[in-house]
Amino acid sequence: MNTGKTSYTDLLSANNYIRQLSDTTYWLCITRTVQESKLFPMNPYMLLSYLNSFYRLPTLLREIDAATPAEELGDRAREVSLKVDTVNAAWGMPSFYLIGREMLMNWNLIGPGDAVDDVVDVLDFSRRFNLAYHRNDGHVTNKEFGDRSQFLPERTLQVFESDLHGVTPGDRLHTAATKLVAQLSQYAFLAHCECRIGLHNSGPYNFGDNRQLVVRDFFDLTEGDYPWLDGIATQLPFANLTIPIVFKDTNFHLMDDWASFEAEPSYDAANIAAVGMYTSDALTDGYVPVGMENAETLAETMEQYREILNEATADLWKRIAGWSREQMIDAGALVYSSVGKDFAHLAGTYRQDDWFQIDERVQRFKPLMNDEYGRDNLGEMVGLLGFPHQKTNEYSMARYSGLNQNMLTGIPYAVLTDDDFAPTAGDRLSGSSSLEPKTGLWTTSAGRLEIDDYNRRAREFRPEVLTEPYRYLDEEWVKRQYPTSRADELYRLTQRGSRTLEGRGAGLRRADLPSTPAGG
Amino acid sequence: MSDSAVTPPKWGTTEMLPLPSRFNSAVRERAARNFEATGAAWKDVVFDREFDLFSLDDARAVEQEALDSGYRFDFSATVSLESEPDKYKRPERAAAGFADGAVTDGRRQVGVGDNVIRKSETVTGPVALISKVEQVMSLLADGVPPGTIAVIDDSGGTLTAPIIEGFAGVICLGGSVRSHLGILAREYDVPTLMNCRIDALQDGDVVEIEVTAAPPAADAYETGDTGHARIWTIESGN
User: Fold this and answer.
1) Which of A248, A464, B218, B232 is deepest in the core (most CB within 10 A)?
2) pLDDT per position as a tens digit, B1-34
3) Bridge-partner residues for A235, per DSSP?
4) Interface pTM, i.e. ipTM
5) Segment A68-108, tens digit of pLDDT
């Protein structure tokens, strides 16, 4: 019998969300790329990560939601670049959870009604987060928006447009920025065990004059949650870097839910017209400029960071090259199953063992996870949709394939009346890891902290734009209230630290902004 | 017993690929047998007694049954083959069948691939075949010889992470222009062909890669319209 917790409308909403994620994930899997690595047993670790998400995520999200509701976390993610972003939180977290459910269902180790309360809670959390995260563009996913991502408000974009430094190919800053972005991409793939979730792209935003802005983010660059980054890149003062880049004559026609882009003509560094650098994390009140005083300082800072990360790439690669197969699998699985971990940092509920252990219920499946089974079971599940239970009635035609199959399975409404199912996987979290335990500190914008200190500061902190009376002042409000002092106050909060717009308020339009050299 | 958990689905039969079909069927059979042995209601077993439903020993038995039948797995990561050589097939690479082509202008075509970044000139250099951690470690210590074109059978970005910037070009035997290695090639501006099919090359063979070719169209991997960038060996004595 239903516990009474889940209603018919809860199920309608959850099943709608499952179908959206199912269609989008299928499209991403068949059109975007092949997941492969000669260094990491990637497919085996991905399968284990999905199972780890299934068993652990509901319990962890309930604690986080009680401390800071999901919609408030979405508000936080909308203001700056946080690792709970498009690929990690908006798409990955609920999808990995649901894919783990598919695996267990296919093995007949759970039925479609089992864990119904968990499924509904995870999807409800995700939907509330996504609605708030995408509040400014009004969509739930990038796919729903036509593969576009525009979550930043005008007040932030105006600061970017005014403060970014213009570049031309071959000048010092252009070279430094191009090389740093390449190094960051390389390092982020390595630090994340070959997955792309350390990189994030959003936009494009129209910067006028045939220019578009893409915001490029790189996360978890030094000591923090990943135990294997202890002692790595410790000269880097920040764990996260954001590099907004303005391109000329380039149309970014696709920004997908994996936060990767396609452009016409294709991405070419020669078309970069302006760049900047910022950092943000759970303790920053807005984006914090990094080396933005002038173009020379920015170039010098980027060159210095590139040196640090170049050395860190070699150091980390040597460390990882010495790992056993099980250590590589555990690390990769934990990277994937911890995509929601920064929710815990924002809420101040982070505990290392919550996110960096393979659950004991998952450990039992390890003998199945040879490379071929990993590759083919993943392909069967997300590409061929060949699990017997993924087939639907013979009259049905799925969104992208036109075939009678869906990647993700809905919850049967009969759970509202039937009684032979278990509504939750439970809240017992016990697990282990073959990796060296974490001993280092956490790198934050407030310095290197012990985790208890980090959690305490996070619990006590809230960005000012999200406090009363500013939280609900969106651009529909700004549209008519921009001459008011309250609108000026809102904009001035975001303009703090801006080299060119500090204190300028809400009345500016593009023509009023100090032009960048590239802007002409 | 819960019908919804163990009754075969109405519209599906079995997996299409051999190993998922074999393993998943074996797990389903064991789960059904173990559940029946509990004599309990499904809701009391599914999470409260889940190790009775399927245990670590069950998983080991599923793998062992396959190995005992003579099945050996394909490997993807070199660490898998090296750590458990008895479980995996040794790698074999089929020739692509270009070797019979004619020598024209001192060049013989030996392969095709997908160009990542369109350049104004082709790139020529000696190849280095890289597939192992030890090779990367050695190049990391000694440096990549100038002009080297790497032949990499890994479309991931991590195996060659510390050295990729040093290559004059890359021939990748897998992936697509959207793979992680393709992304990094674009960021580092390293002339690169992905998804290549080539005849056997030896370390030191001098090749020319047609990085002047147009990159694949956005829908190329759906339509199959790929492989337009050519790879030639430079024939000695010409």
Assistant:
1) B232
2) 445 567 889 998 899 999 999 999 999 999 999 9
3) none
4) 0.94
5) 999 999 999 999 999 999 999 999 999 999 999 999 999 99
Closest alpha carbon within chain A to B2: A420
- My answer on whether A277 and A234 are in the same domain is yes
Q: What residue ranges of chain B are covered by domains with CATH 3.50.30.10?
A: 103-234
CB A248 within 8 A of CB A518: yes
Number of domain units in chain A: 3
- Transcribe chain B into DSSP letters: --HHHHSPPSS----SSHHHHHHHHHHHHHHHHHHHHH-S-HHHHTTTTHHHHS-HHHHHHHHHHHHHTT--B--SSHHHHHH-GGGBPPP-----S-TTSPEETTEEEEEEEEESS--SS-EEEEEEEE-SHHHHHHHHHH-PPTT-EEEES--SSSTTTTTGGG-SEEEESSS-TTSHHHHHHHHHT--EEEEEEE----TT-EEEE-TTSPPPPTTHHHHT----EEEEEEPTT-
| Residue corresponding to tokens 């169209």 | B217
A232 and A315 inside one domain: yes
The verdict on A309 and A412 lying in the same domain is no
Q: A203 lies in a domain?
A: yes
CATH of B103-234, one of 3.50.30.10, 3.30.70.1320, 3.40.50.1110, 3.40.50.1010: 3.50.30.10
Q: How far apart are CA A30 and CA A43, in angstroms?
A: 16
CB nearest B53 (choices: A37, A40, A109): A109
Residue A178 with chain B: CB contacts under 8 Å: 187, 189
Question: Does A1 map to a domain?
Answer: no
Inspect the interface and report whether the beta carbons of A368 and B27 lie closer than 8 Å. Answer: yes
Q: How much is the pLDDT for A4?
A: 66
CB contact under 8 A, B4 and A421: yes
Strands (E), A79-118: none
Q: Are residues A314 and A342 in the same domain?
A: no
